[in-house]
Amino acid sequence: MRYLRLLGVFYRYSLLKELEYRVNFFSNVLMSVFWLVWGVVGVSIFFLHRDKMGEWTFPEVLIVVGLFTFFNGVMESFLRPNVGAVIEQIRDGTFDFVLTKPVNAQFIASLRNVVLWRLVDVAIGLGLIVYALGQLHVTPSLASIAFFVVMTASAIIIVYSIWLMMVSLAFWFVKIDNITELFFAFYEAGRYPVTIYRGLVRVLLTFIVPIAFVTTFPASALLGRLDTTMTATGFAFALGLLIASNRFWNFALRHYSSASS
Amino acid sequence: MLRKYAALLRRSMGAMFEYRAAIFIWMLTNVMPLVMLAVWFSLAEDGPIAGYTQDDFVAYYLLLTVVRQMTSVWVIWELDYEIRHGALAIKLLHPIDPIHEYIAGHLTDKVLRVVVLIPLGLLAWWIFPTIHYDLTPLNFLLMLIATVIAWLIRFLSQYCFGLLAFWISESITLNDVWFAMTMMLGGIVAPLDLFPANVRDVANYLPFRFMLAFPVEIVSGRLTPAELVTGFATMTFWLIVIVIVYRWLWRKGIRQFSAFGA
């Protein structure tokens, strides 16, 4: 309850901060649309030469592109300004202020800020998904939608856990401030259904850097290609990763010796 | 000038080694060509695409990865920051145009990248023994020259976008659009041969191709001598244009900057 009230205060503050820079809003929306179009054009080049991509048709791949944009928005709104910023705070010593607050440090480090205009990506990503479903003449069943919601939630948990683990490394190695960029680079592979990748690359993208869970699996759920067992497995995987990342974060915190002293 | 450069290089070398882990991560972030390789490789399983076999895609994208690494540029983030925070004022007091300090920083980064790329290149060659390049001594030399010019065009165009920070706050956003165009029409998303003919005809004359794909095309054996000559002529044209734009923006910007600072 107290934490919910804190979130209310935090986000009101974020909103006020952003209203000050609202001139940027328009150019930012324009950029989000530009990147979405860019992604769609990029995918259509494959379909100039082949009518399927790893067994997925063009509108089906558009669902994956929509999810790619959706999660890009989630990461830019919530992860980069919070977990992502921890590295910078460790380097300049301001992370000590987070630790001295009478609230759980992981809570503040994860949910303190929100970049609202980036939620535009979340909206237009969802828009593209709805459009693609219309092109396919598919109305997802209730079960498909339920699986989609669970898989999307799992994906958010997975991405968050990976970010938390990456950032925890900064407690030891302060000079790897670009490590989150590395995740964005691998995330590029999530623009396309994971079935297009072969051999080791697919294994890597499914289990090592689990990008497949982020874009391909929620899309599969929406298209009615996931059953209860697969959805439950995905959710269990996400919870496992969340617990592991929390342990690692706490372990890293114990090794933290402030930069300021 | 050479002595000044030696001093600049020594200084940035020291900073580089301090941050070698970060540089290695930056190298790893350039995986986009390899992602595209993985996609085209499996799409070409059922037969060549527009004349490209699986081996051709491997040959194209491996070399494109090297060119991408050797032409990487990040000057806009330094320049934008230093203009915004006024740190550029200190650099203007130095007896040398600040652009040379940025160039020296980029050159040392290239030295480090070559050291990492050589063993990786040999490894790739060992994994894919069947890939083939048209590597005559002349082609090799032309590729090197084209890569240097490609870097110059990338660096100077990004520098121009950085200089826009004297006037507007969206300089990095504009550079993002420029970079997205480079990925699309510079040959990362697909070799230009795979675009529809009318798009390709336009792309051949735009600057993007000459920031990435052209050096690779030189040793692919797909260019006719006439196309090679036209390519170098177009490349030189864009280099000259970009140098003129850079000089103009720099002169205007400095005047604006000192007026602002005084």
Main beta sheet of chain A: strand number and arrangement? none
Q: Could you estimate the helical fraction of the residues of chain A in percent?
A: over 70%
Number of helices of chain A: 13
The number of E-state strands of chain A comes to 0
Count the DSSP helices of chain B.
12
Distance between the termini of chain A: 35 Å
Q: Which regions of chain B are unreliable across 5 or more consecutive residues at pLDDT < 50?
A: none
Most extensive interface, residues per chain?
Answer: A-B, 33 and 32 residues
Following the backbone from N to C, one meets helices and strands of chain A in this order, namely HHHHHHHHHHHHH
* Estimated radius of gyration of chain A: 19 Å
Mean pLDDT of chain B: 91
What is the H/E string of chain B? Answer: HHHHHHHHHHHH
Strand content of chain B: under 5%
Rg of chain B, alpha carbons: 20 Å
Basic shape of chain A: globular
Query: What structural class should be given to the helix and strand makeup of chain B?
Result: mainly alpha
Mean pLDDT of chain A: 89
The portion of residues assigned to helices of chain B is over 70%
- List low-confidence stretches of chain A: none
